Amino acid sequence: GQALPFPVMLAPVAFHRLVTPDGEKATAAAAARAGTVMILSTMSSTSIEDVAAAASGPKWFQLYCYGDRGVSERLVKRAEGSGFSAVVLTVDVPRLGRRERDYRHPLVFPSDIMPVNFMHEFDLSSMPEDSRGMALSAMVASLMDQTLTWETVSWLKSITKLPVLVKGVLTPEDAVLAVESGCSGIVVSNHGGRQLDGSPATLEVLPEIADAVGGRADIILDGGVRRGTDVLKALALGAKAVLIGRPYIWGLSYGGADGAAQVLEQLRLEFETAMALCGVTSVEQITPRIVRAPWVG
Prior knowledge:
This protein has about 300 residues and is an alpha/beta fold. It has helices at about 25-35, 50-55, 70-80, 100-105, 130-145, 150-160, 170-180, 200-215, 230-235, 245-275; strands at about 10, 40, 60-65, 85-90, 165-170, 185-190, 220, 240-245.
């Protein structure tokens, strides 16, 4: 229900202060400059309230559901009270994937970077300094609700007035269940390819999900968007908008808020150029005929 100047939003990514001192505040500034939505990660390195104070643009809150639902409820209430306008429930991490690259190259956090939204929920002080990154991931994974079901969506809708989206859908069957559970939106996502080896590319499964949903909920594509032509393809195959993750983090690491804003502006210009060269003047004119792919009927 929010109007955007172009259909690219910022996906939830943890710990932005690892790449820029201002962390998620810089991300919020870049998103506001572009007039687009920032989705704040539960695992942010800046608090919900501090990001809200720095964010003049629209913002959504990404939620993991924890075994202690009181923790999840308090996070949602804080986001709602801080002016966030939607909740994005990530459903593809009932347990953490086996991320072999992380085992080979363990991440060690600086002592001043922590998941600040949890500081009053869990005791993090005993974590060893030399393995804080890996230990933190393991701890958070152990706290997640491994019995996640569609009833969880019903529960979430009962505690907030905000629209609820589910992130991590890869099949038309799950997309239909999401609609039937009352979700306002569906994020087609494979978690950046980091959860399950061999999972399909999101663009590949998008058309059948769009057909199954039939316009009953907004569909957002997440994963693999690197060019404006990727945005065009996603809209042609049924998405209302796309999320980017790694590209804006690269921008943050290069130049903070200015770097992330530069990434968004580059995508906007590329998308406009692609539209013009395909002969369309509005997103409503972007149809499957624009792309040629074996899975498009």
